[in-house]
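Form 12-C: Joint structure prediction
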Amino acid sequence: MLELPGSAEPAAAPPVLAEVVRSGFVEGRHRGSLVLLAPDGTVELALGDVTTPVFPRSANKPMQAAGVVRAGLDLSGERLALAAASHSGETFHRRLVAQMLAEHGLTPEHLKCPPDLPLDPQEREACLSSGAARDRLAMNCSGKHTAMLAASARRGWPLDSYLDPGHPLQRLIHRVVEESAGEPVAAVGTDGCGAPLLAISLTGLARAFRSYVLADPGSVPRRVADAMRAHPEYVAGTRRHDTWLMREVPGALSKTGAEAVQAVALPDGRALALKVEDGATRALGPVLARALSLAGVDSPVLDRVGRAPLLGGGREVGRIRAAF
Amino acid sequence: MLELPGSAEPAAAPPVLAEVVRSGFVEGRHRGSLVLLAPDGTVELALGDVTTPVFPRSANKPMQAAGVVRAGLDLSGERLALAAASHSGETFHRRLVAQMLAEHGLTPEHLKCPPDLPLDPQEREACLSSGAARDRLAMNCSGKHTAMLAASARRGWPLDSYLDPGHPLQRLIHRVVEESAGEPVAAVGTDGCGAPLLAISLTGLARAFRSYVLADPGSVPRRVADAMRAHPEYVAGTRRHDTWLMREVPGALSKTGAEAVQAVALPDGRALALKVEDGATRALGPVLARALSLAGVDSPVLDRVGRAPLLGGGREVGRIRAAF
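Section 2 - Result
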C-alpha cells in the first residue's frame, strides 16, 4: 500500500445535508453547516461548524448596501433593493442599473465588475441567441457596483479605486459588517465581481440578518431590509428562490451567495444561515426548504424552493433531497 | 436546542480530495473516494469507500461500446471511439454521428437521447449565437446511442426499445459490465441520456479499465481501448482532459463520467477510479492530476489537467487544489 503524507484534513466532516438520488439510488451527497437562531437570538440548531469564518459571498450584500447608505447615498425602493442584489440580468434589472448610473453622472465604463452574461440560464440563452455579448450591466453584481460608485461620487471619494479594501467606502463597509455580525472580520478576499469579500461565521451572518429585520423602522439596516422585501424581484429575479420566498413568506429577508451560502431572517427574529461545504448551488433549494420548515415556516412556496429534479432521457428520474 | 430525528448518515465521510481556495482562504472542500491499482492489479491506495457500488455514469462507456461490438457491430477507428464518447458536440463529432446513422440506414429521429446543446461551453455558446437549437446529434452521448441502434438494427432487434434494460442489447451490455468489473451489477438506473445505468464499485471500475488495456490485441476490449487511444478527440473533444491525457500519456485510457467520476488505466496495468462525493466536475482536474502523479505519471500534461483557477473581477485570485 502506498503511504501518503499526512493530509491537511480539517475538523470533523460536516453532516450530509442533501442526497443526490437517481432511480432510487443515492449517487452523491452534499455536506454542510447550518445555524438556526430562535426569536430571542439564541442558537436553536447548529449542524456542522457554525463558528469558523466562511466567505458569505453575496449574502453579505445587505450589509454592503447598508454601507453605501451609511456613506450618505440616499437610495430607496427598487434602487436600494438592486444595490443589495445578485440580479438575474433580466431586462428590467439592466435597465434600472443603467438609469441609476445616469442619475449619478456615471457610465457603464465606471463599473469594475467583469463583463458577464446574465446569471439566469434562460436569460443567458436569450442574450446569446439575440447576438448580445457579455457586458458589465448584465453582471449580477452591477447594482451593487453602481451603488458603491454613486456613494463614492457623492462623497468625493476616488472612483477608480472603489474596490480597494483601503478605499474609504470599503473601510466603512468593513465596520458595518463587523457591527452587523457582532464579530470581527476574519479575512478579506476578492469576490467574483472584484469587490472586497469579508469573512464571518455562519452564526455572525444569521445574527446580522436577524438584526436587519428587527432594527427600528427608518434605521439604515431596516431600510435595506424593507427595500429588499418590498422589491424582491430586484434582489434576485423572476425564477429565483430569494424572490419567491420574500414574496410568499410574510416579512422574510432572504439572500443567497455564491458557493452555496444562504441567509434568511423572519420578522419575529428567527434567522438561519447555511453553507454547503462543496459550494453546490443545486443543493441550496432542498436544504433551504428543509431548514425553513424546521424554523416553523409553513408555506406552499417551500415545495417550489425545495424542488430539484434530476433528469434521465428528458424525464424526471430522481431528485436532490434534504437529508436532515 | 432543537432535536432532530436520527438522520440517515451513511458510513464515515470520505476524505477531502480538493480545496477551494480564494484569496488564500479555504472557502470550500470536495470529498471523495479513490482507488489506485498496481500493475499486478492489487490495491495500492484506497481513499474513502472504494467497494460500495456507485453509478460510473459515462465511465461505463468503454464497456457499453464493447457490448455493441460483441453484439456483432463491426466498428473501428473514429467510429468506435465515438461509440464510447461523451463528446463535446463540436462540428466533427456531430458530422460523424450523422454519417454513422446514415451508414446504418438510420436517421436522427431514431435517437432516444434527449435534444441538447453541446457539452463544451465554447461550442454551446457558438451554437446559441448562431441561432441553433438543442438537437439529439449534439447531445454528448449521441455516438453511443447511434452505436446501440446500429447494433440492434444489425441483429434485427427492436429499435424502439433499445434503451429498455430488458432489450437483448442491454442484457448483453449488463453481462459485459459484470465480466469487465469482475463483480455483479448492484443497481440499474437511468442515465442522463436515458440509457440503462449500471452500478459497480470504484474498484470494479478500475479493474475493468485495467483489463481493457491488458486484453489481447484484437480482442473486443482491446479494440475498444485501442480505438479510444488512437482517436481521443472523438472520445471527448478539443478542450477536454480525457483527450489531453490520451494524447500525451503514452498508452493511457481515460474516461470521465457525470457527477465527477473518472477512470484511467495505464498500459502496464496501473489503473485508478475515483468519484467526488458531491459530483462536482470542477474538482476532477486537480484530483485526477494528483492521482496520476501518485500513480507515477510524470508529464507536463498533468499541470494542464490540474489547473482550475478561480476568478475575482476577471483576474485569477485562487484555485481548486488537490488536498491529498
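Section 3 - Comments
The CA atoms of residues 232 and 243 of chain B lie 5 Å apart. The mean pLDDT of chain B is 96.
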